Amino acid sequence: CLTSESLGGRSANRGQCAQACRLPYEIICDGEDVDAGSQKYLLSPQDLAAYALIPELLAAGVTSFKIEGRLKTPEYVANITSHYRQALDQAIQGHRVEFTADQIREMEQSFSRGFSVGWLQGCDHKALVPATSSAKRGVLLGEVTAVSRDRVSVNLQCPVQAGDGVVFEGDRLAQQEQGGRVYHVCRGHDVLTEPVASGVVELTFDQRSINLREIRKGLKVWKTDDPRLNRRLRESFAGPTPHRRVPLSLQVTAHAGRPLIVQGTAANGAVCHVETEHVLAVADRHPATKELLTTQLGRLGGTIYELQHLTADLQGTPMIPHSILGGVRRELIGQLANSVPVPTRLVSVEPMLPQLRSALPHSQQTDQPPSLLALCRTLPQLQCLLETDLSAVYVDFADPREYREALAMGHESGRTVIPATPRIQKPGEMGLFRLIEKLQPPAVLVRNLSGLRYFHDRAIPVIGDFSLNVTNELTAEFLMQQGTQRVTA
């Protein structure tokens, strides 16, 4: 994401990712080419998968997990969220989080460039970026053991069935990667119709999709698509029948000689209250029972509700016709649908910006003409700028040790030279601030709040750079109060 922004000006956070991480790169060190072998995708990280660390993350205080679903399929979201739900339930109950090999393969099948815990267990660049591929390949199906005129023999490492999508190992850049759908799975003279998980099988393909003459023994085969898994995942969320129902509790009051009253509350906050105009008569043969009420009122059909609990106050052996109960049930469903509470949003009654702006000290616009300041990154650039009529020059060098020479050049020419800090200050890098402080510069161009505090506390004039994100006069005033003499909008 950072590469896309820094190289091409395309922000991944705004949906404009250039996918620079998916491209191959060469390594040049000290002007010499470095042979990286098969490691061409040097900026392509594996997918983060922290399911095994969920107990530790919960113990650390994590209360919410974000599943990356942007530009993913609904099947992917159903797959990953269901597995993480299972892992969370195991961890909350105090059990170890354990997935079977089949469950891990299911997650890898939906979308995976390989799984990694990232840096949750410490920095390990090679584990995060193996650099051998940048594409989704699914799961490793096996290895080619033989190739005939119309078949490929594969020693399996995971199940395969006719209809699965596969791809053979190859250089995508050289268009040597081939793939297609499996037509038949054979063993000897038998065509296998059920999934096969181990041993050597023969796969047949549409000859138009794969040129078998380019497939050789030893190539790895990846399963890129599993139609049966996708169908099962779709069934978990698609279709007319709700897959997750909301528990409903009902309280029924049925007294002979009085109207029937039914009140209900649902787990989503919906409520209902129905009172019939019909007065209940005394039953001659079939008085109302709790079981009858549960059966009739529990027929909630294709709604999102399910009757979880019912209490009944029955007095005087009342008789309740089924038609009355059916009408009550329909009225209950309608009221529940219309009474689901809308989540509250805290909205300021009055717009806050005018109030904040009115509290700012009144400033008067000066009549001073604007002045031009320049920033340079090398000593030769600085030498050229010092020969102009610029009153001040910012210096931002890769080697901060050159700041001493830059300040001396400015002093000799009668120009102000102002060193700049890095934008990102890592722990343990305060030595750079101390180096700049020892030079006693006329001012410092600060790029982060740490630099602002450091140099202001040491009475060195501070100028705020654009990386402090001065978006309006409120931000500018805040930074001025913190000690900056000038800010960059």
Describe the structure.
- With 489 residues, the chain is an alpha/beta fold.
- It has four domains: 44-128, no CATH class; 139-235, Elongation Factor Tu (Ef-tu), domain 3 (Beta Barrel), CATH 2.40.30; 246-338, no CATH class; 371-487, Aldolase class I (TIM Barrel).
- It has helices at residues 2-8, 54-59, 74-92, 101-110, 125-128, 227-235, 290-297, 322-338, 352-358, 379-386, 403-413, 431-438, 449-457, 473-481, and strands at 27-29, 32-34, 47-48, 115-116, 139-147, 152-156, 165-168, 178-187, 190-192, 200-205, 220-225, 246-255, 259-266, 271-279, 281-282, 305-315, 318-319, 374-376, 392-395, 416-419, 444-446, 462-464, 484-487.
- The chain has a six-stranded antiparallel beta barrel. A four-stranded mixed beta sheet has the order 14-13-12-16, covered by helices on one side. Strands 18-19-20 form a three-stranded parallel beta sheet, with helices on one face.
- Strand 22, helix 14 and strand 23 form a beta-alpha-beta unit.
- The longest helix has 19 residues, at 74-92.
- It is flat.
Structure described in brief:
This protein has 489 residues and is an alpha/beta fold.
Mean pLDDT, rounded to whole units? 87
Overall tally of domains: 4
DSSP helical segment count: 14
Question: Helix proportion of residues, in percent?
Answer: 25-40%
Query: Which word captures the global form?
Result: flat
Major pleated sheet: 6 strands, antiparallel, barrel
**Which strands sit side by side, in order, in the main sheet?**
5-6-10-8-7-11
Strand residue percentage: 15-25%
Radius of gyration: 35 Å
* Architecture per CATH nomenclature, i.e. the level-2 architecture of the largest domain: Alpha-Beta Barrel
How does the helix and strand content classify structurally?
Answer: alpha/beta
Number of strands: 23
Q: Which regions contain 5 or more consecutive residues with pLDDT less than 50?
A: none
Distance between the termini: 25 Å
